[in-house]
Amino acid sequence: RTVYLNGQFIAENDAKISIFDRGFMFADGIYEVTAVLGGKLVDAEPHLARLRRSLAELALVLPLDDDALLAVHRQLIARNALCEGLVYMQVSRGAADRDFLYPPADTPLTVALFTQDKAVLDSPLAKRGMNIIGLPDMRWGRSDIKTTQLLYACMTKEQAKARGADDAWLVKDGWVTEGTSNNAFIITRDGAVVTRELSRALLPGITRGALLALVQEHGLQLDERAFTLEEVKNAAEAFVTSSTSFIYPVVTLNGQPIGDGTPGPLTQRLRRLYIDHALAGSV
Ligand code: PMP
To answer: Minimal CB count within 10 Å: which of 76, 88, 186, 258?
Structure first.
């Protein structure tokens, strides 16, 4: 693969960063993941807007404008002949002798991008649906910032795997916040699409935002509010959204079926609507 590192397109084996990089030492960095369909970026604009927000929250000043960032994304897609998958972008505060305080503002940031091949449209989990477990949300208080500090998500995914599940939904004070790497949705028995309102407790998912617009456009009932695992158990359907899955049905919680334990009809309709949106809106 060809990757991008600090202004250069190079072979992945030649891409090296310092052991003093603050991304490595402190997880002092942010990232974005944008899906690629038919060689084009899906929802590039809101991904760039969220990247700007993450940078601002961490007082990182990136000397590249949106056009330059888009050009790097497109170059990487072209150089790797990527048709379907994703582009990952990470920005860290760069390399400096280890100190909790931020280094001088002129310290160059580390900017790295790479592509991954992934079958997004034809994924087995989209057909089978995910088995999830509930776990406590023990992350820090700013889960709305897309930082590279993902250890708790790794730990909970491992725990889900050890228990024979695909993923976990995280619960804080009795309420589901989100999945380990996706936003959590249920569909109630009277057909309302329910997902938690945005706050510092969860990531403002780009797929979540696009889907909510589609839900409203198609006159479906939307309820932006927190819900409990008890409500998930009694829901008609459940699903997750993310740039790397689009929409995956969720069919069991803690080993118990949700609805009839198969991907729900409204979930499957929403997945098709989202894919149509993604194909139409990619650039
Ligand atoms: N929540 C978390 C914790 C995530 O890591 C992700 C994906 N990175 C999402 C939600 C989904 O966000 P998006 O739709 O922008 O991929």
So the answer is: 88
pLDDT tens-digit map of 36-84: 999 999 999 999 999 999 999 999 999 999 999 999 999 999 999 999 9
CA of 268 to the centre of ligand 1 (A): 20
What single string gives the DSSP state of each residue in 124-186? HHHHH-EEEEEEE----S-TTS-BS--HHHHHHHHHHHHTT-SEEEEEETTEEEEESSSEEEE
What is the per-residue DSSP string for 233-282? HT-SEEEEEETTTEEEEEEEETTEESTTSS--HHHHHHHHHHHHHHHHH-
The conformation of residue 21, written as its DSSP 8-state character, comes to B
Largest alpha-carbon pair distance within the chain?
A: 58
CA-proximal residue: ligand 1, atom 3 (nearest): 181
Active site residue 146: yes
Q: What is the value of ipTM here, to two decimals?
A: 0.99
Judge whether 241 and 181 are in contact, CB under 8 Å.
Answer: no
Bridge partners of 240, per DSSP, are 184, 248
Show the domains of the chain with their CATH numbers: 2-117 (3.30.470.10), 124-281 (3.20.10.10)
Cβ atoms 42, 68 nearer than 8 A: no
Q: Cβ(178) to ligand 1 under 6 A?
A: yes
SS3 assignment, position 203? coil
